[in-house]
Amino acid sequence: MRAISMSEARAQFASVVKGTSDNRETFVIHNHGAPKAVLMSVEEYRELEATMEEISDPGARKLLEEGKDDIRKGRTKSAEEIFGESLI
Asked: How many domains, the chain?
C-alpha cells in the first residue's frame, strides 16, 4: 500500500490507475496528511466484497470464530498429519 497526496494522484492519474490494474498496487490518497480515499484494482475490490459478504454470513462467522478459538487453544494439525506428507 502506497500513500500519495491528492495533488500527486491528480498529476500522475494515468500511471496510478495503471499501477492498480497491472500490479495490484493499492494507494491511500491523502490531503494535508489526512487519508481521504483508497484506490485499488477492480479485482482486489471484488475479492474484498466477497470476503465481506462471507464474513457477514452468521454461519460462516461462527465457523471462523470457532477456528480462531481452536488455533488459540492449540487444537491444530500439521499438513503432514492431514495429508500424510510435507507440503514443503
From this structure: 2
